Amino acid sequence: MSTPGVHPAVKSTAYRLMKPHQVVETEIEHRVPERHVVIEPTLGSICHADLRYFSGNRRPEALARKLPMALIHEGIGTVVDSRAPELRIGQRVAVVPNIPGYLIHGIAPEDCCPACRNGTGENYCQKGRFLGSGTDGIAQNRLVVPAECAIPIPDEVPGEIAVLVELCTVSYQALVHVKSKLDSARIAVFGDGPVGYLAAAVLRYVYGVGEERLHVFGAVPEKLAQFDFATTSLVQEYDFSAGDSYDIALECAGGRFSESAINQAIDVLSPCGHLILMGVSEERVPINTRDVLEKGITMRGSSRSSRADFHPVMAAMKDPAFQRTLGKLLPEKRTPVASAADFARAMEYAESHRGWHKVLLQFQW
């Protein structure tokens, strides 16, 4: 245990992305302020956001501003040093990558920024940091974060399930703003990839939306078949001009499919319906504004979660049915990572195999 009142430092071996496709092992140093913990990452999961950095699929000015940087923001680990009494050495924790500025600087929320001061939400903090996006992420052997951003993993939750918690919390956060409607609303999810799958799973197992009110639209029969807890339809066979209407729609397709998914969602939404945008596209997307106006549709974007979202999702992960559903995204085996070269190979593999299953990194420090 570190001495109270002293800010010791810890050295960390990081796999830093120097430029697209180039990863170098680098030693960095972190201060360990009071109420912070030192975590040794054990499992990480590769996100499409990581791949956009690795492949150079971001704007040149963004890459120039953010690199060099250790990637990965989806991960779990073990506490190896703690300056917070509620977290003990040896405890398994999930990492919250979105760290609000007031926790970083040890100040009150009202002294941080307008978003923290007025309660807009920690995920909009103007002085915060996001691991693996402008600050070093989980691909390092000693990660230092505020204790509030290290969420204990219940004994009932296996590590390979817990590593998916950050992804699930993104969906949970997106739905918080329509939570009061979820008891009776009819909901459509557009997208049969991992983002759509997790959004639908969170609706079913965290928010309790039944199959009869949860409709998933996708384009690939094999992927759509995985959604055995929801009603499903292939977009190429569904008549959007004569189908059912929905109170809430989630666009989870992203990329080049964003345009069709957004406009199909607009087609099926009821007057005064809610459209939640979750799919990421690097290009501008044309949408049917006429029907948005005529129907009075509310549109809201959401891409990050906050630490408050982790607790209800982690509690729900104790449910064996939720675990079985999440387990369909897991690969047959984990990818061992013991060097910068191993990390780069894992990223190259994930870039060239953008399939259904996640790529899980088993860190071997």
TrEMBL record:
Residues 35-155 form the Alcohol dehydrogenase-like N-terminal domain. Keywords: Metal-binding, Oxidoreductase, Zinc. Its cofactor is Zn(2+). The keyword Repeat does not apply. Transmembrane segments: none annotated. Gene3D superfamilies: Medium-chain alcohol dehydrogenases, catalytic domain (3.90.180.10), NAD(P)-binding Rossmann-like Domain (3.40.50.720). It holds the Pfam family ADH_N. The gene is tdh. This is Ribitol-5-phosphate 2-dehydrogenase. It comes from Paenibacillus cisolokensis. Belongs to the zinc-containing alcohol dehydrogenase family. Residues 235-317 form the Alcohol dehydrogenase-like C-terminal domain.
